[in-house]
Design a protein that fits this description.
The chain is built from 19 helices and 21 strands. The protein has 493 residues and is an alpha/beta fold. The protein is globular, with a radius of gyration of 22 Å.
Length: 493
């Protein structure tokens, strides 16, 4: 029985991991090799990603795997979407990349709509949810202020493509990560020349588009020599972490919606073609690329970011909580005392998240949460209500009946939130895998190696190896009444 080893570098907006995947026949096991922080750098009023630190951590992870003495088939990187870095004519990075939460991006998409292209016309071309940090709008901002690093850019790469370039010396643009940019023609699944031109770029500035599961090249000889490791192949997996995560949904049929739950929550369904109509325009639904020609019809929702920022603020005050402590606190707190809209602009990147929540509650004539437990419960309940609100939209858009919600990613471990979600949506919630991005990343490498042939074969292997938890709706009448209250508070009458 053949045994293959794969390295998945799974980089999120707050932390990164090196995962070693072992596929023996159809038995898949994962081992976390390294874990490291990925914190935005704040300087001079801007937020950046320390791409050089990420690169160093990729090197460390590779070296740690090498110490295990196992034959590695390949490596692959998945990250968050939209962010970019320039490469100059000498092949050097043009400084460090801005982070999508940089304040320069806030409110600037409206400027693009006014001066360049109407919002609806743009959506009909790219099918992408309008968010301040879409790459298209970021480039509009950078061009507008004459950003020197963009002027010097001979090529522009998305973050995972830039890291792959640093590893291999080869430049590609992977399709799923490019699909987050707002610069692809949704129907043709290729660059939209007019949109590129609108932000002073051209097709020539972008590396060739490749499908997920494409072998880019090998670790450069210099890097292999430096680390004293073999020059293994590097695969362009589904480089957008959500695309890799969705590929790992352990679904046996098409009657499902998915929720990739982490710092961001991404809820959606899988379709064969983009869905671009008045309903998707109205609800700001995005059409992003998936595996095997699928489209991820989804909605970005602010996820655990709000809680993470509260925890960070409380830690500064000297109070820290373990996850079990938080769950216990939230379980005992008063139900439905107040609600927030997680996607309100107040919560994008405030200096003080609890204070931002207080401001929202006062603005909507609610009492502010009474203590940390109340904040935690309110965040969980508000997220569950947001999931209900969003799922109702996808029920209307789906060609298939939605009979269950698959929750994947780190949030799948949150039993309380999963139960709240089942209560809110009135459907079973199936939780797992927690390491969905890494699992999808590894299985796409297996596909590149010819071990599996299709997305469904990938999912069959995953289904056979993942422990799942199922949550059934409870207290339906109470949650229905609370949902009406939530809709009134956030202005959905």
């Amino acid at each position: 029985m053949n045994t293959n080893y794969f390295i998945a570098f799974d980089l999120g907006a707050t932390s990164g991991r090196t995962i070693l995947g072992k596929l023996k026949g159809e038995k898949l096991t994962l081992e976390e090799i390294t874990r490291f922080p990925n914190q935005m750098l704040q300087w001079n009023g801007h937020f950046y990603w320390n791409i050089y630190s990420l690169y160093e951590n990729l090197k460390k992870g590779s070296a740690e795997v090498a110490r295990k003495g196992v034959p590695v088939t390949s490596a692959g990187i998945d990250t968050w979407g939209v962010d970019i870095v320039g490469v100059n004519a000498d092949g050097e990075l043009c400084g460090i990349p801005y982070a999508y939460r940089d304040p320069q991006n806030i409110g600037k998409k409206e400027e693009y709509f006014s001066n360049v292209m109407d919002a609806e016309k743009l959506y009909m071309r790219n099918g992408i949810q309008h968010m301040d940090f879409n790459t298209l709008f970021q480039l509009h901002v950078l061009n507008g202020r004459g950003c020197e690093s963009m002027k010097a850019a001979h090529k522009i790469l998305f973050i995972p493509d830039a890291l792959n370039y640093m590893l291999t010396g080869k430049m590609v643009t992977e399709y799923t990560i490019a699909s987050t940019s707002g610069m692809l023609d949704a129907i043709k699944r290729d660059w939209d020349e007019a949109l590129l031109k609108s932000v002073n770029t051209s097709r020539e500035q972008w590396a060739p588009l490749v499908k997920p599961g494409t072998i880019i090249g090998h670790l450069s000889p210099e890097l292999a020599a430096e680390l004293q490791i073999p020059s293994i192949p590097v695969v362009a997996v589904a480089e957008h972490d959500t695309a890799s995560a969705v590929a790992a949904v352990p679904a046996t049929d098409k009657n499902f919606a998915y929720l990739s739950s982490g710092t961001w929550s991404l809820m959606g369904i899988e379709t064969q073609e983009p869905v671009i109509n008045q309903e998707t325009i109205k609800h700001n639904i995005t059409n992003e690329g998936g595996v095997d020609g699928t489209i991820r019809l989804l909605k970005n929702i602010t996820g655990m970011w709000i809680l993470e920022q509260c925890l960070q603020r409380w830690k500064k005050d000297g109070t820290s909580y373990t996850y079990p402590e938080m769950v216990n606190m939230a379980s005992e707190a008063k139900a439905f005392s107040c609600f927030i809209n997680p996607d309100d602009a107040l919560f994008v990147n405030p200096a003080d998240m609890p204070e931002a929540i207080n401001e929202y509650c006062l603005r909507t004539n609610q009492e502010i949460p009474d203590g940390h437990a109340a904040y935690i419960r309110m965040i969980f309940e508000s997220l569950a209500m947001k999931y209900r609100e969003t799922l109702d939209v996808f029920k209307a858009l789906s060609e298939h009946p939605i009979e269950k919600l698959h929750v994947i990613g780190g949030g799948s471990r949150n039993a309380l939130l999963n139960q709240f979600t089942a209560n809110a949506i009135g459907l079973p919630v199936i939780a797992g895998p927690a390491e969905a991005s890494s699992v999808g990343n590894i299985m796409l490498q297996a596909k590149a190696a010819g071990i599996v042939q299709s997305l469904q074969e990938m999912r069959n292997v995953i289904s056979a190896n993942v422990e799942l938890s199922t949550y059934y709706p409870q207290d339906s009448e109470l949650w229905q009444a609370a949902y009406i209250k939530y809709r009134n508070i956030i202005g959905l009458h």
